[in-house]
Structure to design on (229 residues):
């Protein structure tokens, strides 16, 4: 299913982490709507190519979430490009993007590329620290979501708690101000209950680390999200 508007569940695989063939097969055949390949650090072209070749044995759509230009390669179904809205540095909102477009603009298929407006809310996460984020309060988070929807018209607003289960009330508030922009939630989902709770408000729930820590629990999140009325 290649229509992102229909997606509800995505597994995120970190190219910088090992996964054996059986686990990869179970994840790809789980009924998830897509596999996203991405991580904050240590992402190399070799890892990104190798995961792509292994995931391609299955029919699930596969997305590269770009974290650096060195590891971009053709062959993915979609390219998701993060722009970190609560970063204090222009570099992470549009600076790297500006350079990338100057260098690779002619090669970009714009229909395959989607910008994700990230709001990173876990100060302990690598992504928060790497991109020099500021911690927004509730009103500021809502304002970022409104900007994503009405000013920048981004296809995706991503409430990111990478590594930590987040505040469902915030996700609920954000859901009220988004109509066209899809709401992605990711961070710390390790059980069916958590997946179900965040799915009440998010269009798409993203499940990452638990794949490597407890595959059985990870697989159950797919059913939890999809069973919901
Ligand atoms: C060859 C070909 C097909 C070319 C075309 C490709 C294409 C579509 C190019 C687009 C050009 C473009 C605009 C590129 C953007 C350039 C770029 C590098 C932008 C910066 C992106 C960015 C802000 C990265 C920062 C890191 C970040 C926010 C990553 C998001 C993923 C994330 C939060 C992962 C969480 O993992 P982590 O925190 O590491 O968790 P662990 O602790 O578990 O690892
Ligand atoms: O790894 P976890 O904490 O599940 O987070 C998923 C994803 O939002 C990370 O970018
Ligand atoms: Mg991770």
């Amino acid at each position: 299913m290649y229509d992102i508007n229909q997606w509800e569940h995505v597994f995120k695989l970190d190219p910088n982490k090992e996964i054996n063939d059986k686990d990869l097969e179970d994840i790809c055949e789980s009924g998830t709507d897509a596999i996203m390949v991405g991580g904050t650090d240590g992402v190399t072209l070799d890892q990104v190519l190798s995961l792509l070749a292994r995931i391609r044995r299955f029919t699930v759509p596969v997305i590269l979430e770009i974290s650096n230009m060195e590891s971009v390669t053709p062959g993915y179904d979609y390219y998701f490009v993060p722009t970190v809205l609560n970063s204090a540095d222009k570099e992470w909102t549009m600076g790297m993007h500006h350079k990338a477009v100057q260098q690779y603009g002619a090669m970009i298929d714009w229909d395959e590329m989607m910008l994700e407006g990230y709001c990173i809310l876990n100060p302990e996460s690598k992504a928060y620290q790497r991109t020099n984020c500021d911690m927004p309060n509730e009103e500021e988070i809502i304002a970022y979501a409104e900007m994503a929807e009405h000013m920048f018209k981004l296809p995706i607003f991503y409430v990111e708690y990478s590594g930590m289960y987040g505040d469902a009330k915030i996700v609920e508030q954000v859901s009220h101000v988004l109509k066209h922009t899809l709401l992605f939630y990711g961070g710390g989902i390790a059980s069916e209950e958590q997946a179900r709770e965040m799915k009440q408000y998010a269009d798409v729930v993203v499940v990452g680390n638990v794949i490597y820590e407890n595959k059985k629990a990870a697989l159950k999140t797919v059913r939890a999200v999809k069973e919901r009325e």
